[in-house]
Amino acid sequence: VQLQASGGGLAQAGGSLTLSCTASERTFGFSTYAMGWFRQAPGTEREFVGAISRNGGSTVYADSVKGRFTVSRDNAKNTVYLQMNSLKPEDTAVYYCAATSSSLVFGYIRTDSAYAYWGRGTLVTVSS
């Protein structure tokens, strides 16, 4: 299974970007997985950004992005999105999408060990 993230690029502080992540295989069963977004800035560990439930009815976010970022999904298109608004220079990182069989009910969903499938990542750079 291949998860392909796209939409990264350069943005100014205060601006917006939308990332997409698409599962390449129809047999993946995209709608049976909760999807998460993580990011990793240079010299730091990968950190949780947000996640969305299988049907898109529930979302959870890291405190650092709550109110600015929105995770959504379109199961018909096998795609999950990360809408990023009010971007800050500290949002600069490589962003990864990932798929998990775990539920958003559990705090475990915020750890990268909960996720079985990962995309390659897309770079977001926010200039001040």
Question: Would you mind describing this structure in some detail?
Answer:
This protein is mostly beta strands. The chain contains no helices and 11 strands. The strands form 2 sheets. Strands 2, 4, 5, 6, 9, 10 and 11 form a 7-stranded mixed β-sheet that branches. It has a 4-stranded antiparallel β-sheet with strand order 1-3-8-7, with no helix packed on it. A hairpin with a 6-residue loop joins strand 5 and strand 6. The radius of gyration is 13 Å and the shape is globular. 32% of the residues are buried.
Counted by DSSP, the helix tally is 0
End-to-end span in angstroms? 37 Å
Mean pLDDT: 94
What's the total number of strands? Answer: 11
Low-pLDDT residue spans: none
Q: Over all CA atoms, what is the radius of gyration?
A: 13 Å
Task: Specify the biggest β-sheet.
Answer: 7 strands, mixed
Overall body shape: globular
Order of helices and strands: EEEEEEEEEEE
Q: Kindly estimate the percentage of residues that lie in beta strands according to DSSP.
A: over 45%
Which structural category fits the helices and strands? Answer: mainly beta
Helicity level: under 10%
Task: Annotate the secondary structure layout.
Blueprint: E1 3-6, E2 9-12, E3 17-23, E4 34-40, E5 47-52, E6 59-61, E7 69-74, E8 79-84, E9 93-100, E10 117-118, E11 122-127
Parallel strand pairs: 2-11
Antiparallel strand pairs: 1-3, 3-8, 4-5, 4-9, 5-6, 7-8, 9-10, 9-11
Kindly summarize this structure in a few lines.
The protein has 128 residues and is mostly beta strands. It is 0% helix and 46% strand.
